[in-house]
């Protein structure tokens, strides 16, 4: 019998790759998507993508999207408390594992695993340690747009660009092409996990703190 799992969904390339990897494994059954939304802005935390676009992604994938709403200045304690409430609800449905798209950051993985252990759950990391993931993403037929960049390491011009081989070739040598250190974030709008392409248009680019954000708008 397949193990029911919940996917931590950011709307970006790594969670899409993690979803694809899990969907190819008959050991698992995907029970739903879980995302964190900043309630003040109705956008996904860090990526800055509108809640409505996340809902379109979930609809195209064909899974329910569960949202954890946190305040814009949320502490770890607030995040963990609200996440715990949602995870307990999924336990009642027989879900005891959460899938993440983390690749190499040991401290992040440890943090997730420790918090899940507190509620009797475990983490699954299907793309952990895998090489050449950006090229794999492109080769699988996924399409994504860069929604946010860290201004300390990337120019404003990278915001709103397609995540493709041309962009990978233009990235400075000190930037991880996975964006694993938060150099950039993305929004996936097409690929093998979707039943239909997500429609959007590019709005204004704004700077908040040390990050440039591209405002994607549903169409």
Number of helices: 6
DSSP E strands, number: 10
CATH topology of the largest domain: Rossmann fold
**Which CATH class of the largest domain?**
Alpha Beta
Q: Fraction of residues in helices?
A: 25-40%
Instruction: Please state the overall shape, judged from the principal axes of the Cα atoms.
Output: globular
* Class based on secondary structure composition and strand pairing: alpha/beta
H/E element string?
EHEEHEHEHEHEHEEE
Tally the structural domains.
2
Give the name of the CATH architecture of the largest domain. 3-Layer(aba) Sandwich
Low-confidence stretches: none
- C-alpha Rg (nearest Å): 17 Å
Fraction in beta strands: 25-35%
The major pleated sheet works out as: 6 strands, mixed
CATH superfamily of the largest domain: HUPs
In angstroms, what separates the terminal alpha carbons? 41 Å
- Mean pLDDT, rounded to whole units? 95
Write the layout of secondary structure elements.
Layout: E1 3-8, H1 13-23, E2 28-38, E3 43-44, H2 51-61, E4 65-70, H3 76-91, E5 97-99, H4 106-118, E6 122-124, H5 133-139, E7 143-150, H6 165-170, E8 184-190, E9 200-208, E10 211-218
Parallel strand pairs: 1-2, 1-5, 2-4, 5-6
Antiparallel strand pairs: 2-3, 7-8, 7-10, 9-10
Task: Give a written overview of the molecule.
This protein has six helices and ten strands. A hairpin with a 2-residue loop joins strand 9 and strand 10. The mean pLDDT is 95. The chain has helices at residues 13-23, 51-61, 76-91, 106-118, 133-139, 165-170; strands at residues 3-8, 28-38, 43-44, 65-70, 97-99, 122-124, 143-150, 184-190, 200-208, 211-218. The strands form two sheets. Strands 1, 2, 3, 4, 5 and 6 form a six-stranded mixed beta sheet that branches. Strands 8-7-10-9 form a four-stranded antiparallel beta sheet, with helices on one face.
